[in-house]
Structure to design on (410 residues):
């Protein structure tokens, strides 16, 4: 394996660069000063070639030159990434687009996109010689961290808001994490986690403040570029909470262009829920982010105070893309459409990205000749209550044929 190719960490606010030993945010800008990992792409290009990739395992460690981990660091055993991309012609017809693709990231080991980041997080915790890793999460980052901590034998302390759905909490408990339900919202859980990590020296997995975690999320973009190659979609849609997912994906896409492994880049469509859309507002008004309320059935993106809004805005703007907000009833519609027309069962926050594609087609941002890839970022079984809300209950009948005929109007 080649050596780690990190050249430094650059602050997104003041632009200063630091060596890789700065653990979290910019020492002079504080918590706003999120750092961005810089890599020696010329050296990466020497070994990360199409031929080399063809011989590597189909998981997200295939891009190891571009990941911020030491060459000798052992990797967790769970399979992450290289999730399938499906053509969904009936969804293309329903949305009025030339082509719709679904990338099913619910197939990751703990059933969400967050595994891309947690897998890197546990490697970094080991590199920094920590035995405990912590995070605050709307749910998926937590269940993902719990799974990866279990897989490598680290202790995990997890802070979740009181209303995190039971299936996600069940994942935490079964993986043996210490689970702290905070009587408050995600913002309060996040703050408490920050303080606890500072106090007890736990490794902080919170994606926004940890510069390395978002590098794991970048692998989605690397994969989209490699999997789509000459048929790069015009648009790539992601739902947006803190903003790390869409920003990371865009970084990965750009890296593949820089390495000459893809010619054309898509435009990014960032989708927030109408009840939690501070980044949409910041994009629309071209003003710094103002934290706002967070009320949506899409719990994973119900974030009133996003931490990585600068990276998200920069990514979408640079791609020539845009943001859109969708109401909860359209998210429920999209959950059904995704499952019934695409064969993929996504959780509400995942379906929100598809709802955004519908909305952007309706408002003319996307046109009939466009193709769009929609990231399905979490599996629908993460939140069955909302799924059943989207469908209504099953028929219940007496066990006889007459009752069946009546129920089915046959
Ligand atoms: C976390 C998450 C997102 C959004 O990611 P951010 O980095 O917070 O923007 C989208 N969908 C699902 C299912 C998630 O868990």
């Amino acid at each position: 394996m080649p050596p780690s190719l990190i050249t430094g960490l650059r602050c997104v606010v003041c632009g200063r660069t630091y060596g890789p030993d700065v653990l979290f945010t910019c020492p002079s800008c504080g918590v706003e000063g999120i750092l961005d990992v810089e890599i020696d792409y010329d050296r990466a290009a020497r070994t990360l070639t199409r031929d080399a990739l063809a011989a590597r395992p189909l998981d997200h460690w295939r891009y190891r030159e571009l990941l911020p981990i030491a060459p000798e660091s052992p990797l967790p055993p769970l399979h992450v990434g290289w999730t399938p991309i499906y053509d969904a012609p009936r969804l293309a017809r329903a949305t009025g687009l030339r082509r719709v693709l679904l990338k099913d990231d619910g197939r990751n080991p703990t059933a969400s996109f967050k595994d891309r980041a947690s897998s890197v997080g546990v490697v970094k915790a080991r590199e920094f010689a920590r035995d405990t890793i912590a995070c605050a999460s709307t749910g998926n980052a937590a269940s993902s961290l719990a799974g990866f901590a279990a897989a490598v034998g680290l202790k995990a302390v997890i802070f979740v808001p009181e209303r995190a759905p039971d299936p996600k909490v069940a994942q935490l408990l079964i993986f043996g994490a210490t689970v702290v339900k905070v009587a408050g919202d995600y913002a309060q859980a996040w703050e408490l986690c920050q303080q606890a990590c500072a106090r007890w020296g736990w490794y902080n997995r919170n994606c926004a403040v940890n510069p390395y975690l978002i590098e794991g999320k970048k692998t989605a973009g690397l994969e989209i570029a490699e999997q789509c190659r000459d048929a790069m979609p015009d648009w790539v849609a992601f739902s947006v909470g803190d903003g790390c997912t869409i920003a990371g994906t865009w970084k990965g896409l750009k890296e593949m262009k820089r390495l000459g492994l893809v010619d054309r880049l898509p435009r990014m469509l960032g989708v927030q829920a109408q009840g939690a859309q501070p980044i949409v507002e910041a994009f629309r008004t071209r003003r710094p982010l103002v934290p706002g309320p967070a009320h949506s059935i899409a719990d994973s993106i119900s974030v009133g105070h996003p931490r990585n809004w600068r990276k998200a805005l920069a990514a979408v703007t640079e791609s020539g893309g845009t943001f859109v907000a969708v109401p909860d009833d359209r998210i429920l519609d999209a959950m059904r459409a995704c499952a019934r027309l695409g064969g993929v069962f996504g959780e509400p926050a995942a379906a929100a990205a598809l709802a955004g594609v519908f909305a952007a087609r309706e408002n003319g941002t996307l046109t009939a000749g466009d193709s769009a890839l929609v990231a399905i970022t979490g599996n629908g079984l993460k939140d069955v209550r909302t799924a059943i809300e989207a469908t209504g209950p099953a028929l219940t009948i007496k066990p006889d044929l007459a009752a069946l005929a009546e129920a089915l109007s046959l």
Q: What stands out?
A: Residues 85-111+213-391 form a domain with the Rossmann fold fold (CATH 3.40.50.1100). Residues 112-114, 140, 207, 239-245, 300-301, 347, 349-350, 377-378 surround pyridoxal-5'-phosphate (CB under 6 Å). The longest helix spans residues 186-200.
